[in-house]
């Protein structure tokens, strides 16, 4: 039942995205000059909530635009009604709905749906990950120098040692291709599908990563914070890889790699 609710909730949000895409909708700013929220983000969130609440009125929900709907349930739905809002607002079809479900603090289900390219990623703890119902697995690459990576940049720039541009520059100067899609949930799913060998980002929120992290892990990948330690979606740093390049990418991010 949880799985079917999750799928229907993701489909409901995605239908709203399709309805508004390339049409006219209001756009406003959150903090930061280009941290946008559109009418479609709110409408997608509303449609997702309706599905969840119909089946599980007492479950806790954490969602990007609405914040926390606190209950004392041990189930928490973590919702990003549109991940990749800047892409969405510019008519770029690199955006999706992302929903994770936590039980007793552990992620048990994740769904990421991009209706524009027809990709529905799903994972259930212990049962693997799928793309449109077909099993997926991470890549086999074992060297960062031969990898294709993806990253994202925060809306407000972080000027600090090993900042996003420092790490990016280290990789690019060494000839490593690093892409920037603009949707962390898609970045994670594309690591899970073996399209990218690794992903790192300096400042994510729980709703950006909740579903995608489970999808990477269930596809055989590894996810950690910047120290290489256990990942929590409630802290900002993430490194997600096929597992084989993980320690090496942790070293690059921390400027501890001997060759990069
Ligand atoms: C953003 C995207 C982007 C990442 C940002 C996120 P939003 O989410 O995931 O890839 O770099 O940090 O905030 O605002 O489009 O939901
Ligand atoms: Ca997001
Ligand atoms: Ca969002």
Can you give me a brief rundown of this structure?
With 260 residues, the protein is α+β, with helices and mostly antiparallel strands. It folds into two domains: 2-135, Fructose-1,6-Bisphosphatase, subunit A, domain 1 (Fructose-1,6-Bisphosphatase, Chain A, domain 1), CATH 3.30.540; 144-253, D-Maltodextrin-Binding Protein, domain 2 (3-Layer(aba) Sandwich).
What does this structure look like?
- Helix 1 packs antiparallel against helix 2 (39-55) and helix 5 (184-192) runs parallel beside helix 6.
- It is globular and about 55 Å long.
- It folds into two domains: 2-135, Fructose-1,6-Bisphosphatase, subunit A, domain 1 (Fructose-1,6-Bisphosphatase, Chain A, domain 1); 144-253, 3-Layer(aba) Sandwich (D-Maltodextrin-Binding Protein, domain 2), CATH 3.40.190.80.
- It has helices spanning 2-20, 39-55, 85-89, 164-173, 184-192, 206-218, 246-253, and strands at residues 27-29, 36-38, 60-63, 67-69, 75-83, 96-103, 106-114, 119-124, 129-131, 134-135, 149-151, 178-179, 198-201, 222-224, 238-241.
- The protein has 260 residues and is an alpha+beta fold.
- A hairpin with a 4-residue loop joins strand 7 (106-114) and strand 8.
- The model has no long low-confidence stretch (mean pLDDT 96).
- It is built from seven helices and 15 strands.
- Helices cover 31% and strands 25% of the residues.
- The site of one calcium ion has 5 residues, from strand 5 and helix 6.
């Amino acid at each position: 039942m949880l799985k079917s609710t999750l799928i229907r909730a993701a489909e409901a949000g995605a239908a709203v995205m399709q309805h508004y895409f390339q049409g006219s909708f209001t756009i406003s700013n959150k903090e930061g000059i280009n941290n946008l929220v559109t009418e479609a983000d709110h409408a997608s969130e509303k449609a997702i909530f309706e599905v969840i609440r119909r089946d599980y009125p007492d479950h806790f929900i954490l969602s990007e635009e609405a914040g926390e709907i606190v209950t004392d349930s041990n189930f928490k739905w973590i919702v990003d009604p549109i991940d990749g809002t800047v892409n969405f607002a510019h008519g770029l079809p690199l955006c999706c709905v992302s929903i994770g479900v936590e039980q007793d603090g552990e992620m048990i289900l994740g769904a990421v749906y991009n209706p524009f390219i027809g990709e529905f990623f799903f994972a259930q703890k212990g049962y693997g990950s799928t793309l449109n119902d077909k099993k997926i697995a991470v890549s086999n690459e074992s060297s960062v120098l031969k990898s294709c990576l993806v990253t994202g940049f925060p809306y407000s720039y972080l000027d600090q040692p090993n900042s996003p541009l420092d790490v990016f520059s280290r990789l690019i100067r060494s000839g490593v291709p690093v892409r920037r899609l603009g949707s962390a949930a898609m970045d994670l799913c594309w690591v899970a599908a073996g399209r990218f060998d690794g992903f790192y980002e300096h400042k994510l929120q729980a709703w950006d990563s909740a579903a995608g992290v489970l999808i990477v892990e269930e596809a055989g990948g590894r996810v950690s914070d910047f120290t290489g330690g256990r990942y929590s979606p409630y802290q900002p740093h993430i490194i997600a890889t096929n597992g084989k390049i993980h320690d090496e990418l942790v070293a690059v991010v921390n400027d501890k790699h001997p060759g990069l």
